[in-house]
Structures are given as C-alpha cells and as structure tokens.
Prior knowledge:
Elements: H1 21-40, E1 46-49, H2 52-64, E2 72-75, E3 90-93, H3 101-121, E4 126-131, E5 146-152, E6 155-163, H4 176-198, E7 202-207, E8 215-221, E9 225-232, H5 240-258, E10 265-270, E11 289-293, E12 296-300, H6 315-324, E13 329-333, H7 339-346, E14 351-356, H8 359-371, E15 379-383, H9 386-396, E16 401-406, E17 411-412, E18 421-422, H10 423-435, E19 438-448, E20 463-467, H11 469-472, E21 485-491
Parallel strand pairs: 1-2, 3-4, 9-10, 13-14, 13-16, 14-15, 16-19
Antiparallel strand pairs: 4-6, 5-6, 7-8, 8-9, 11-12, 17-18, 19-21, 20-21
Helix pairs in contact: 3-5, 4-5, 6-7, 9-10
Amino acid sequence: DIAPGLARDYYGFLGWLGHIPAVWRQLREEAEARREAGLATLPAIVGYDADGQAVRTALANVERAGLRGRVHIERRALADARPVGERPGLFIVNPPYGERLGEATALIPLYGQIGDTLKQRFGGWQAAVFTGNPELGPRVGLKPRKTYQLYNGPLECRLALFDIAERAPEAAEAGAGEMLANRLRKNLKNLQRWARREGVTNYRLYDADLPEFAVAVDVYQGERLWAHVQEYAAPASIDPARAGRRLREALRVIPEVLGIPPEQMFFKIRERQRCRAQYEKLDRQGRYYEVREGGCRLLVNFTDYLDTGLFLDHRPTRARIGALAAGKRFLNLFCYTGAATVHAAVGGARATTSVDMSRTYLDWAERNLALNGHRGRDHEFIQADCLAWLAAESARRRRQYDLIFLDPPSFSNSKRMERTFDVQRDHVTLLRQTAALLAPGGLLIFSNNLRRFRLDAEALPELDIRDISRETIPPDFARNPKIHHCFEVRRRGDGR
Length: 496
C-alpha cells in the first residue's frame, strides 16, 4: 500500500499558482500513514537468483524503494528454493528465454526443474511463470489454470498461472536419469573403442535403447564435441507430463555423460515426416561447424534444419563410393549437401555431377567440395527436379557415368516437382532411367530409407542387382537394421 512516487521530493504542480500546499501536505501524511500500516502487515517477500550481479542489482533496487530490511534477496539456485512463511504463498519466476535454438535447448532442463521444484516443495501454493519463449513454457510440465499473452516490446510473451496440488511426483521417476546415464556410458565405452579403431568421429551414441527415453543422440567431433539430440514424438497414449519429465532428465544427463556444456547440445523433436519436410528450415542462424569423415572435411548445421546435413547411417556407403571413385565420372542424384560427392572427389574421381532441386543444398554441396580443395569445371552442380532431369537425360543418352549414387526420398509431392514421387511405386522406372546413364561396366549404388521397401527385381530383368544393405549398416546403427536399404546395380552383360 505504498503510493507511487511517495519517495519523490518535487512535482511540477508544486509551482502551479492554484496549488494549495496544506491539501498536498494532508495527502502526503495520509499516504505515509498508509505506507507504515501496510509495512506492518507485510508478508515475507524473498527473492533468489543464481547470478551474483543480479542479486546486487536487486538489493540496490530494494534500497532505492525504501524497503531495506523488508525484502530479503540472496544468491541461491532454483534447485535450492524453499517455501517461506507458515501459509501457502505465491511463487513467481521469470526464467531466461533462450533467443537462439541452441540456447533454448540448454534451458529445457531449467524449465523442467521449475515444475519439479513446485511439485516437490510448493504444494498448495500458487505460481506464475513469465517467459518470452512460448515454446519453452510447456516444458514446465504443469497444466496452467490461465495463460495470458503479453508483449515485452516486440517480443511475444506468456504469463502462465498455476495452482500447485498437494502431491508428490511419481515414484517411478526416481532413478530414471541414472538408468539413462548408465546406458550412455556403456554405449560410449563400446563405441569409442570401435570409433578409434575405424577413425570414426561422428556417430550415433543412443537410439531409443530404453523405451522410457525415446531420443536419438548423435555425437559430432570437430573443433569441439557436439551432441545432436532428437526426440521421437510420444504416442497419444503416453502421459505428456511424464514424457516431459523423462525428456528433461535426458537433456540433463546427456551433457554430463559427454562432459560438455549444455550449449554444445542441440535439441529437436522428430515427428513422422511427409514429403521433404526433413529438409525444411527450422531456424535461420546459418551457423556451420566443420567435422571430418574418412579424410573428408564436411560442414554440418545443428540448428536450421531437422537433419544436420550428414546422414550418419550412410557413412559406409560414402566410404565405398570413395574407394571406387578413382578415375571415374561420378553422378550424385538427390545429392542433398554433397557428402557423397566429396568422398568421390577426394577418392580421385575424374569428374563429378551433383543434382538436386534445392539451391540451398547445392550451395552447401559446393561449399563442402571447395572445403576439400575441389572446384572448377570438372565438378558440375545442377539445380533440377531429379525425376524430370533423369527422364530427359535417359532419353537423350548423351551423358554417361562410371559410378552413380541414387538416394531418393521415400515420398515427395513438392510443388516444384512435375508429379508426386513414391519410392516403392516408382523405383522400377527410376532405376531403369538411371541405369541408362551408366557407362559400360558402370556401377549404380541405390539407397533409400523406406523401412518396408521391397525391390521388384523381376520387373528389371536387364539389371543385375545385389542387396548390400547388411554391408552398409554401421555398428552404431546395428540396433536399427532397417535404417536404410542399399543395392549395387549393373546392366547385365557389362561384367564386374
């Protein structure tokens, strides 16, 4: 009950000719009396912050407001927050927002800790969470009683109000994080031994090994060690609050086991994709990180797209291409970021051609190739619908290649394509047209990621097809042998 501006000594109206000082003194005396009466019944007001500078600033503001000794401020982490007073009160928190995707990822455990702290220690209280990141708000793991949309300047914010029930969290959650940590340590020990032996620096560490933790964890080694974490969206039958708690535990444990700060971990939600959704932009940071693979230098992006620009399960296939490429003319269809083209060029390919519909990915592919010292007329980049380009080139038969890598999407109905594409429905035509571009004795490597794919060899009697899927599944994907299908294709009569 402190009147606004009560601490001020001067107002402009004091110089007004119609001002009556006696009335003003009476108003001030009433306001000061109300202030004293209000302070006499003031409940406990306590503020915590883990940042020492924030605490010093808050204490200075308390002093300026004339509330020294009335409001208690101290340095304390959220995990150490405790109720004050005998009765339930109001818990208010304005956590960091995380303006960039990587920063927001690092904050998910913090938002989850807010919900856990409220449930464990503040039963019967009311709570208010104010955040400038609407995506992070639900990570608190509590259902708000009411939510307000507000703006801090141009920044869209949410104020969520909660009534905290008098109950403890489920006992089944206890120890779940340690269970995941043990599995990660076990995988890390086994895979690091293999990775050192094979010279592998980027690999899948964990892929939903435990049903309680439905995430995939990939590690990338460059200038630093980075973790790329993707959550598989939980089915509707799973309690969202429980799934949220498990995710928060995972995001807390993963950097601890890897020994990296949270900002070197990047998080995304992976849902069933349609068309080319996995290639669509999620963010616009434009930050690329260099990693190495089999003697090649490659750029990855952890934030802007669902995938990083490097499909780790194709690592053995790219190595095979590099080993076969010396002196060959190489064609990479649906080339994505050109990682296979880089392997071919580094392996000694005489010339390379990379075809993709996306200008963004062709530019990325060109950057990857240049990073390895390969540029110029011997390396061609064609922006085109691969299906239309193949149909035209197979009819003309003016181009011939000794080695072709064909890795189409499972399905696409992009507006830039002349028609829809379904790899199961259309693979016979696709293989026939691609094989028409093979030079005598040439080899086509055909791969796709449709789990239920069945190759119709009987419809392609002119081709000699060998399934090499098992040979191209690396140890870090051994738990998921249907991650891709891979075939060697030759024209019959060409020999091997």
